[in-house]
Write a structure and sequence with these properties.
The structure is a single chain. The chain has about 110 residues and is mainly alpha-helical. It has five helices and no strands. It is elongated.
Length: about 110
């Protein structure tokens, strides 16, 4: 056998052996799914549509509670200015108002 034959035959043999070996079936148990919608309210559809375009809606719910209007206005503006979220200027205020109304109060 010459070297050229071996260079061609070895990869073919390796691929053939992988094809002949059945893949091991893996199963996973996923955690229970949680409702990943935002609570209904004025601006909830805008918030869900615009926010979910870039990140999970769960990201909103993981923000610290009890932050005021300035926090949420800054967060929404940051998404636009820093991350380039395509949110219309008029929608920015509606979304921020929804978020402060929905998540601005501390949880007890």
């Amino acid at each position: 056998m010459n070297a050229r034959f071996l260079m061609l035959a070895l990869p073919v043999a390796a691929i053939a052996s992988m094809a002949a070996t059945p893949a091991k079936v893996m199963t996973y148990t996923l955690p229970d799914t949680e409702d990943l919608t935002l609570p209904a309210g004025e601006g909830s559809d805008l918030a869900a549509t615009n926010c979910a375009a870039c990140h999970s809606l769960d990201y909103i719910r993981s923000q610290p509670r009890g932050k005021g209007a300035q926090f949420w206005a800054d967060e929404v503006h940051k998404m636009i200015a820093v991350y380039g979220a395509p949110i219309e200027p008029a929608d920015e205020k509606i979304i921020a108002a929804y978020l402060v109304k929905t998540y601005g109060e501390p949880t007890s």
